[in-house]
Amino acid sequence: MRAGAPLRCTGGVGEPRFSTDPQVHAMSNAPISVRRVSKVFADQEGNAEVHALDAVSLEIPAHSFVSFLGPSGCGKTTLLRMIAGIERASDGEIVCNGKAVTRVNTGVSYVPQGRGLFPWMTLRANIDFPLRVAGMPPRERRPLVEAWIRKVGLQGFEDRYPWQLSGGMEKRGSLARALVSDLDIILMDEPFGPLDAQTRLLLQNDLLRLWSEKRSIVIFVTHDLVEAIALSDIIFIMSARPGRIKQVLPVPIPRPRNVLEIFHAENFNPIFDAVREAMHDELAATGA
Known about the structure:
- A hairpin with a 2-residue loop joins strand 6 (91-96) and strand 7 (99-100).
- The longest helix is centred in the C-terminal third of the chain and has 19 residues, at 268-286.
- This protein has helices at 22-27, 76-83, 123-133, 138-151, 167-179, 197-212, 225-231, 268-286, and strands spanning 8-9, 18-19, 32-42, 49-60, 65-69, 91-96, 99-100, 109-111, 185-189, 217-222, 234-238, 245-250.
- The protein folds into two domains: 1-108 and 187-266 and 277-288, Rossmann fold; 115-182, no CATH class.
- The chain is of the alpha/beta class.
- Helix content is 33%, strand content 23%.
């Protein structure tokens, strides 16, 4: 697929078909549209400028799981934070569900890097937090929180604090907190990065299982080629800084997927080769 080409899903759920026609792009009503977004940061002294992103344009179809993949420092997290409304674009605009993102985006759930849960709250209180902020009455919140604790397999740990949980258990709690609000867009910034390989695989499978129940949009930041392929419908490959969309690759691996068996999945080898080739020059440019 042509580097930087706009992409739109024109098929039904489970059978996406993609178009790179600029006219289709211009007329689409994609839930998330990033339009020539650039981001410039000043250095710590407020003098020199760091160009993090340069004229990034992309569209994210409904019901899709997409990954931003690229070398360290290419602006993946910055772009995710701008969709969340935590960072402001220096130029261009981001439109979410028909509205320009100009402040914190309350229409998305956000899972940051690191351990994720508030350390001063119990697991139950952490998962309850977004519902309480949204003003849901306690009698309605309690059954939802308990249901999500069961869904992520953390029964018996409801009153534990994050420091009393393993890293994998805390990440399951973070998934529950992100999904309990039933929002249509979930942003995840390398959520499994600090974990050991086996725990990562198990949590990737858990994420796909939970996502398949509703098919919200998930935007997932990663630098792991296999993780991006295993989870995604679409991979947006970003260039080294300043970050641009270098290539857009649909992932033609049928769902449902078993992450533990992804190396044996239909079409895995061709898409892995395509992603590796697209990433090669960018990793070389950063010395990675």
